[in-house]
Design brief:
single chain, about 375 residues, alpha/beta, Rossmann fold, Hypothetical protein af1432, 2 domains, five-stranded parallel β-sheet, 16 helices, about 5% strand, disordered C terminus
Amino acid sequence: MAEMNTHPLVMVVNDEKDIRRLLCRLLELEGYRVTSADDGDSALALLEAQKPDLVILDIKMPGKSGTEVLTEIKARFPDTAVIMATAVADTQTAIDCMRQGSDDYIIKPFKLQEVVLTVEQALERRVLKWEIREFQRHLGQKVEKQAEEIYSLQINAITAIAHALEAKDKYTSGHSQRVAAISTAIAEELNMPQDIIEKIRLAGSVHDIGKIGVSETILNKPGKLTELEYWHMTCHSEVGVHILAPVVQDREVLKMIRHHHEHWDGRGYPHRLRGEQIPPGARILQVADAYDAMTSERPYRGAMSAEAACAEIERRKGTQFAPNIADAFLRMKRPEYSVGGVNRRRTHQRATVLAADRSVVEIGGGNS
């Protein structure tokens, strides 16, 4: 992929003529260039000739199935984004396809606005992957003395993307900045080494970037998530690591991001780690994330008071939260806490936390 197209080409692959025509017309009205095929073999031939940016691929078709075509697309055209189209009864198949490399799926009968949104998000993710890969490719061309500056620029770009994504949603705006500030203050309260504190700050700034891969309809759903929606939500920490891995070379930072939803008692996700198996930085992010979530308004509930959120963290100490991390956080939140003898940096960080009483991830899971 030498460059990104300013007017993306979308291919619709579906053996039903009316559906194919409807999707093509819809996408043309949205300003996309559109092509189509009625079976898997025709689609692969067109892919070779036209190299579309995105393919909407029906799972059940005569001849080659959508899953077989997906495998060939990912092997031969890895830069092509793929959205699987499926009936409700085949949702598990669509999930399996995502594990094999598809970017998303849409369910028939189609909701046209959802189709448009899914296509837009898949293309945005494709551009993001391309930009990160370009950063990585150019990094190797720089002389050693420039490496630190380039790395800083890359991290700033990733952080800016994470913050820009949050800014689109009034419920999560500023969330990552607050989690980074709270996490940093906890680490300083625990007298952790400065290099570890900086890693925790970075992980907090981008811990939710994987939510770029989660549908906004799930993120902003006002009610309880279905089992499928919850599974989709839990993928965001792994997706975040996948996005950041080409740029963030520090394995510790990536582990913090991957495991910031693990619980002390082993009931979290994605790997059900427990106790000391959870990286220390991830344990800190977990407390900071939960506090900010509880004290923020979300589509499915109102915000807790700081006092109620602290009481909930106290109650879940030893089950959801690491006891020493919860204790360190609660010491900072108590008005009677003495700041005598601490340096100005720690005093400033504690003040930041005390002023940050708004928004994070819901304690028992959910779509925050």
